[in-house]
Amino acid sequence: MNPNPLTEADLDRLEELLEAEVFGEEAMRLDEAQALICAVVSSPEPIQPALWLPEVLGPGAEKSNDPVVGETVELLMRLNNDIAKSLFDDETVSPMLYPLEEDSEDYDFAAWADAYVYGAGLGGDWYDLAGKHADDLSELLEPMFMLNGMLKEDAEKNGERWFNPAEEERLLADIQDNLPVIVQTLYNFWRAKRGGATVQRDEPKTGRNDPCPCGSGKKFKQCCGRPDKLN
């Protein structure tokens, strides 16, 4: 396999291949593939390519003898290696984002966050694996649930208070601006856990019975601290 980092031309080629007929429109977009791989690389438990590649490519991944599939897999593995190196070196990863509509200046952060959350689920129950640091993990993952709309959906479903439009827009803009750092911080969280280091906190810890910091009005353990949030 080519050990060199992906070039812009390689990324363009990968984007084209993901839309190839062999995948029958079942493959992820390039932005979604990047997000899922960011979660896979960060996972507390090793996730083998045999597990995550079919999630990216759909049933077409089984056609291993097809040269298009082979080329796509090779480029995805190189993307995986690039992301792993960047996060390991604490260089952060710039999210690849698609516009919500053609010529739009608004980008589909929700799809990126959704793919990240899905990829995180491939590594087992993150909250279970976080153990006594599950509360810390909940706070780190909260921005992803804000971006993909899960927090708002839960609040509306339960008739709970939500942010006014201006505040919601401000919060989302702040998360979008800081998404590379959020992804890096999640990676560093699990790297510290794997290395046996203590997870450092810059702010006071949110107790399980304290109001959830997302502003939903629920207790933390009933909202972002729920153990099923990532399942």
UniProtKB/TrEMBL annotation:
InterPro entries: SEC_C_motif, YgfB-like, YgfB-like_sf. Residues 198-220 are annotated as: Disordered. Signal peptide: none annotated. Pfam families: SEC-C, UPF0149. This is YecA family protein. It comes from Azonexus fungiphilus.
